[in-house]
Design a protein that fits this description.
The complex is a heterotrimer of chains A (500), B (313) and C (109). Chain A contains 18 helices and two strands. With 500 residues, chain A is an all-alpha fold. Chain A has a two-stranded antiparallel sheet. Chain A starts with 8 loop residues before the first helix and ends in a 24-residue tail after the last helix. Chain B is mainly alpha-helical. Chain B is 73% helix and 2% strand. With 109 residues, chain C is mainly α. Chain C has one domain: Helix Hairpins (Orthogonal Bundle), CATH 1.10.287. In chain C, α1 runs antiparallel to α2 and α2 runs antiparallel to α3. The chains are: A mainly alpha (500), B mainly alpha (313), C mainly alpha (109). Chains in contact: A-B, A-C, B-C. The interface between B and C is large, with 100 and 80 residues. Chain C: It is found in: Cell membrane. Chain C: Keywords: Cell membrane, Membrane, Transmembrane, Transmembrane helix. Chain C: It is a multi-pass membrane protein. Chain C: It comes from Roseicella frigidaeris. Chain C: This is Na+/H+ antiporter subunit C.
Chain lengths: 500, 313, 109
């Protein structure tokens, strides 16, 4: 049944390029690592485009069987619409962050190699490889290995600065990530015991609603929710993400949590039988709703800019869970709208949040601090960064035209269309609260600097332009006609004519 | 039959006791000793479950290498009793955690009992097609062929881990020597052991890696034994870890995964499939990759035990 | 009930013990130990599963065995990283737990 499809070799390229690049960058070290990373992450954008184009052209998932061994004996690499879209998003954000980091993470001219620079460039490539493995993996155990790769890469980026204040929150992050992985692994053991395979496309439609299967799904969901910092497991995320250098924060908040999200979809949409999934989805969505409200309210009260942005991540992740009861509701049109809405939220948040963290980092550098009550003068010193922060904020609030608006609009209308109006109320409330904290920051940056404050330091345009570019992409996603997102529906169970 | 039952029951009880001791031991050091015992007993359970390859891995990596790392840290993390006491959750949290964990344990136990007694899995096909791979040990065939991508990514995880651990060191020691320094032991049991054991251990390690193709054993287990011999010599002050800037060390670390990758690409060119073992080159290529992997695993494990750079070269 | 089921129940008990330890033990080193007990329980469940998915003529399914070998090596690497971080934290701040200090609650870290 499963076989390597035409263009399947692209998936090998997507995986091998960054992974081999990381190994080589580690051996070569120093400036060579930086050059290699920039080259390969640039090529990664091309690979991402090629994979998406191939999936679109085929109208069906593209598959590669390493070694030619078909599941259940072997394991498959699969790019369906979700995987292709996330791969492309990842490639763009990673390349942008790599360009941004050229200034902050260059090897100093008087040294052959420094710890932070080598770790930055090697782990950028490592992150690219881990995310490719997480999006393209077709086997739930192989995805466990991908999750662990991701943990190492993400954690090393988070600890890049080696600040004393950092280790406690990053170590807590590591413990949560490890517990999440091991609970996920426990679920795969039960699934293998029940069905003799861990290929999620083979499991689809074959699972029973018995105790081992349901417990497996519950454990995997709990583990992935811990990794995504879903309320009430969210407390580790803000200090861990805010404590990292700006480039790392952008990747952690924008991309790393999305890998767990894609795995969550694999479990809920592919593996879990529809009836229990339908019954349990509102519970998960309720936690998502709580995350939106609590995360936004706490963000509103933050004294530090980076922590504010990190709490906003907690809230924005909540939206991703709202899609589940809508996609599983049974009505074909609701499902397809909610699916697109959820994935567009994942994508536009990746761009917007990366832009926001980069901008926040630039603002903090220019002012010498990131106290939200004293941001005056930032508007003159780093105007493009402030503009990027504002544009990204529009997308997070859900103001048209922006990718965030389209995403939230789709979720809202499918909630109303399906009579689940309470989710719509949460979406609107979350938008208002988001407007509150974004306004607080923007109003502060436009104000005149306090008289006794040191003059803000103007910064070069390059890194600001990167932040602005990412913010513009998050806005531009809202300008595209809905029909252009047909890609994400490819391979979704229940989507018309696209069953695996 | 009854003997089997007695044996399994005793092993299970001992494992449970070791686990309880690990959790409740009065000092961290005693807890780690309990954990090493737990690992060794667990490898007995693996033998009883007819998984000898896993038993070897559990004993070497799970109990041995993990144990050494934890012992080292138990020795170094001595203070902080007051902080621990202040941060220990109260009775309510403990009760809640107990209920949660107990509920999960109960659910899992019921789920294990509810699993189907026999499930058609890929094992029959794995056995039937092992001749295509040329590996008599089915576990090795899964690791190197059927699920080669898992193994490739896992070997890459080890490289990530080494760089991640190194990067935890302070900036000023980058390029320096990792790990604590041990005084050179001139005589005493450790010195004797460190001089006499490695030659034997190296032979055993290579043997375990070599026989892995057809009998229980393999690169992870063999590599761990090799790493253990080096760690022993390091602990006795006989050898010094290389600088983290040394390109040769980095080359050894990536040789396994990179070799696996290159062989995989060769498979794509010759056999039309990435990670296929090309029929024309057959077993020699596979053994070459296994050898490189053994070397890289040994280096990675040893360097992970040693830790981040702590002094200048 | 047979031998493998006994180990299955043991695995379930180890998972419960490990999870309990992870929540109630404050010291990082104890948490890392509990994580390893939890992992040991999960691996044992794979071992039990391997007995059930084995066809006639094979004592145990090699596929879950290979997964456990991979899992053990990955868990070792994770432990090494956690220990390295814990030691570094101790060196710099003398802290041995990851609970947030009381003064950092207001988000002013």
């Amino acid at each position: 049944m499963t076989a390597t499809t035409p263009a399947g070799w692209l998936l090998v390229v997507a995986l091998v390029l960054p992974v081999a690049g990381m190994l080589l960058a580690f051996v070569l070290g120093g400036r060579a690592a930086e050059r290699l990373a920039l080259l390969l992450l640039g090529l990664g954008v091309g690979v991402g485009v090629a994979v998406s184009a191939a999936v679109l052209r085929m109208g069906a998932p593209i598959v590669y069987l390493p070694g030619g061994w078909a599941p259940p004996l072997g394991l498959a690499l699969v790019a369906d619409g979700v995987a292709a879209a996330m791969l492309l998003t990842t490639a763009l954000v990673l390349f942008a962050v790599a360009l941004f980091g050229r200034a902050a993470h260059a090897t100093p001219p008087d040294q052959a190699e420094t710890r932070a620079a080598l770790a930055y460039w090697c782990f950028l490539l490592a992150l690219a490889g881990s995310l490719a493995a997480a999006f393209l993996g077709g086997d739930l155990f192989n995805l466990f290995v991908a999750l662990e790769m991701l943990t190492f890469a993400a954690l090393s980026l988070a600890c890049l600065e080696g600040k004393p204040s950092q280790f406690r929150s990053e170590l807590r992050y590591l413990l949560f990530a490890l517990i999440g992985s091991v609970l996920y692994l426990l679920g795969t053991a039960l699934l293998y015991g029940g069905y003799g395979t861990l290929d999620f496309r083979l499991l689809a439609g074959r699972t029973r609603a018995d105790l081992p299967t349901l417990l497996a799904a519950a454990l995997m969901t709990a583990g992935l929710a811990a990794k995504m910092a879903l309320f009430p497991l969210h407390l580790w995320l803000p200090p861990a993400h805010a404590g990292a250098p700006p480039a790392a924060s952008a990747l952690l908040s924008g991309l790393v949590v999305k890998a767990a999200f894609v795995l969550l979809l694999r479990v809920w949409i592919w593996v879990l039988p529809p009836l229990p999934a339908m019954a349990a989805a509102p519970l998960l969505a309720a936690l998502g709703a709580a995350a939106i409200l609590v995360g936004s309210l706490v963000a509103l009260r933050q004294a530090r800019l980076k922590l504010l942005v990190a709490y906003s991540t907690v809230a924005q992740i909540g939206y991703l869970f709202l899609m589940l009861p809508l996609v599983l509701s049974g009505a074909a049109e609701t499902a397809s709208h909610a699916w697109l809405g959820g994935l567009l939220q994942a994508g536009s948040h990746a761009f917007a949040k990366a832009a926001m963290f980069l901008a926040a980092g630039l603002i903090a550098t220019a002012l010498g601090h990131d106290r939200v009550t004293a941001l005056g003068g930032a508007g003159q010193a780093v105007p493009r960064a402030v503009f990027a922060f504002g544009l990204a904020g529009l997308s997070l609030m859900g103001i048209p035209p922006s990718g965030g608006f389209t995403a939230k609009w789709l979720l809202l209308t499918s909630a109303l269309g399906d009579g689940q109006w309470w989710w719509a109320a949460v979406i609107l409330g979350g938008g208002l609260l988001t407007g509150g904290y974004v306004y607080r920051v923007l109003a502060g940056t436009i104000a005149a600097p306090p008289g006794d404050a040191p003059r803000p330091r103007p910064l070069p345009h390059g890194p600001q332009n990167v932040a602005l570019g990412l913010a513009l992409i998050s806005v531009a996603l809202g300008l595209l006609p809905l029909a252009s997102f047909g890609l994400v529906q490819i391979g979704r169970p229940g989507a018309l004519g696209a069953l695996p | 039959m009854i003997l089997d039952w007695l044996l399994d029951g005793m092993v299970a009880l001992l494992i449970l006791a070791a686990a309880l001791w690990t959790l409740a031991a009065p000092t961290p050091f005693a807890a780690v000793i309990g954990f090493v015992g737990f690992g060794l007993l667990a490898s007995l359970a693996w033998v009883r479950l007819a998984a000898v390859d896993v038993a070897l891995t559990e004993a070497a990596v799970g109990a041995g290498a993990t144990g050494v790392i934890l012992l080292q840290s138990a020795v170094r993390l001595r203070r902080g009793a007051a902080e621990v006491a202040a941060a220990t959750p109260g009775r309510a949290t403990t009760l809640l955690a107990g209920l949660l964990a107990g509920g999960l344990g109960l659910g899992l136990a019921l789920a294990v009992l509810a699993l189907p007694a026999t499930v058609p899995g890929p094992a029959a096909e794995a056995a039937a097609r092992s001749a295509e791979v040329g590996l008599g040990n089915l576990v090795a065939a899964v690791l190197m062929a059927y699920r080669g991508l898992d193994t490739l990514l896992e070997s890459i995880v080890l490289v990530f881990a080494v760089l991640a651990v190194w990067a935890m060191g302070p900036d000023r020691h980058w390029g320096g020597i990792p790990g604590p320094r041990f005084a050179r032991q001139r005589d005493g049991p450790l010195a004797l052991l460190a001089r006499w054991l490695p030659p034997v251990g190296i032979v055993i390690g290579i043997h375990i890696a070599w026989v892995g193709a057809d009998a229980p054993g393999g690169k992870f287990q063999g590599g761990t034994v090799l790493a253990a011999m080096w760690v022993l010599a390091w602990g006795a002050g006989l050898v010094r870890p290389p600088s983290v800037a040394d390109r040769r060390v980095r080359l050894v670390l990536v040789a396994g995964p990179l070799g696996f990758l290159l062989a995989g690409l060769l498979g794509a060119v010759l056999d039309g499939s990435f990670l296929a073992w090309p029929a024309a080159l057959g077993k020699p290529l596979l053994l070459l990759v296994e050898a490189a992997m053994t070397l890289s695993v040994a280096a990675a494990l040893a360097l992970l035990v040693v830790g981040p750079p702590e002094r200048r070269a | 009930m047979s031998g493998p089921v006994l180990y299955g129940l043991l695995g379930a008990a180890l998972v419960a013990l490990g999870l309990f330890g992870l929540v109630v033990q404050a010291a990082v080193l104890r948490k890392i130990l509990a994580f390893n007990l939890l992992g040991g329980g999960v691996f044992l469940l794979f071992g039990v599963v391997a007995r059930r998915t084995a066809p006639a003529g094979l004592a145990a399914d090699p596929v879950p065995q290979a997964m456990v070998i991979t899992g053990i090596v990955v868990a070792f690497a994770a432990t090494a990283l956690a220990v390295a971080m814990a030691l570094r934290m101790y060196q710099i701040t003398a802290a041995v737990t990851v609970s947030p200090p009381p003064d950092a609650q207001a988000g002013d870290a």
